[in-house]
């Protein structure tokens, strides 16, 4: 699917999102993927999946998020002291307090573009992000991060819902 920056979103990104992360209905109780990391290809023509959560691993929610956060925000660049930009999609499960605590979830889209990113890549990632979200559909919360604190789970919960508690 072509987007405004001229970069195409590979069909596998959309299919994986819709079938494995954002699925509802009878298969809702089946263990689903919690996240995927996407990147712009080296030739700057497509957005592709770089890695996905393996739902077969029986990890805690905290370790699943830490794996995602590390893969999103710590990919070393070609030069010393550089980190590569990435997109991430994460299905956050959390609780909303009240007379009855309500469990809910939101799909969070991340645009991780560290300050050390080359100017050309900053432009590519920022111009492609909104169109990527549109192509995927149902990204309910958007986080554009350029520093590690903006991908910490507490910050993500705050963005999901100001009244969220007990995210793990």
Automatic annotation (TrEMBL):
**Subcellular localization, per the record?**
Nucleus matrix
- Domain ADF-H: residue ranges: 4-161
UniProt KW Nucleotide-binding keyword: no
Q: Which Pfam families match?
A: Cofilin_ADF (PF00241)
List the SUPFAM superfamilies: Actin depolymerizing proteins
**Keyword terms:** Actin-binding
Which Gene3D superfamilies does this UniProt record tie to the protein? Severin
Can you supply one Gene Ontology CC term for this chain's record?
actin cytoskeleton
Q: Which SMART domains match?
A: ADF
Write out the GO biological process terms: actin filament depolymerization
Q: What are the recorded GO MF terms, alphabetically?
A: actin binding
Q: Mainly resides where?
A: nucleus
Stated family: Belongs to the actin-binding proteins ADF family.
Name of the molecule in the record: Cofilin
